Task: structure prediction
Amino acid sequence: MDNDISRRTFAKVAGVAALSTAMPTVAAAEAAEPAIVAPGRLFPRGFLWGSATAAYQVEGAATEDGRGPSIWDTFSHTPGKTVNGATGDIADDHYHRYKEDVQLMKALGVKAYRFSIAWPRVFPQGSGAPNPKGLDFYNRLVDELLANGIKPFATLYHWDLPQALQDNGGGWESRNTSEAFARYAGYVAQHLSDRVRNFFTINEFGAFVELGYNNSIHAPGLRLPPARFNQTRHHAVLGHGLAVQAIRANAKPGTRVGLAENMTICCPVIENEAHTKAAERATREMNAPYMTVIQEGKYTDAYLAGAGADAPRFTAADLKSISSPLDFVGINIYTPTWVRADDSPLGFTAVKNPNSYPHMLSSWLTIGPEALYWGPRNVAKIWKVKEIYITENGCSSSDVPAADGIVYDTDRVVYLRNYLSHLQRATADGIPVKGYFLWSLMDNFEWADGYTNRFGLHYVDYETQKRTPKLSASFYREVITRNSVA
Result:
């Protein structure tokens, strides 16, 4: 399969000075003529604007301070698994440059940063004795964020499973991994929740399970038979539920917990009653193995019937743990799945996009800004969720620096403006979206795609590690400043 589809299914830092020099024409225009903000384009007061990264994609320092190997270290070092043999050994060297990267955030004006904690830094073998030096890095990062007025939002699992757990039991194929994840989550919450008040358990079941254990595109690179694969799905959501319970038991009072899932975002192909209800039905069924069972504490009848003898084995206690109450729900949204009503038993059909359908540099990233309206709308409508965050949204682009060294990524600006317009529509309709984390703060290691696709607001020269803000950084800073679609 083309590696370009692999990311989803499913250095010296320039700092504040660089951000200001990168935007001279924008700044001059602002000085000459005050900005006009249309009232209908405003976001709610207190809307939380943020950016996001993930540990293996940015940190580097793969063997420093006691960090153990992860499945992504093993996978990326296996010939043929990533474009050009790219690895996360160095990535953006964020492990050493985090203070300068925090200044990039501060210059943008973001008030929150969603980062992930590398499980093998904290527990090099996945369980057993913790590694104090690994946790120390996140203590330093959290303190630096807070010192600069930026709220830390920590994700406990963004795909970098300790290799030892894969070697001993098959990783998420084993219930032992679910239990080890809960112990790790409880330990981190116990030590960071005095300053980190918001935790996401797991990032994107619909990517790391599907791509890693079903079609071999991502680590650990397996193609499991249906029964083992469905059981792996179950162990992943069980790990989430057990982690929620462990965080509640170990964290400081007032600590909040949720998840970040790349749901299938079902949008009605025409906004009428029939197609809208079809999109709601599709949202439940097309997310049955993950979000639906987490929200409802049961697998849908259609999912179990479709799996037949290959359905996962579970207990009532499992389902109770999986559906442990959450404080908020995070949704990673890039593309829509268009849905129409039909007379089939399920009452809907997903509409196949024609070959001419517009997309960004990544062929999987088809453009559909309506997803930022219908995604949170359906989550709130179906499951009565009261607090929603868009935990990832962004796009890949060719991002070639101009003669002056700046990337004028107008395609990304257009993408973001259109998507954010539909998110603003959602908040105006009373859908409880409380914040937005743009993916990504800077270009980084894009999993099997290596360093070929760039998603960042800041261009990274991987040879020198110099960060340079793109035109989209200026756009996003303007959005944050106005609290409005710019």
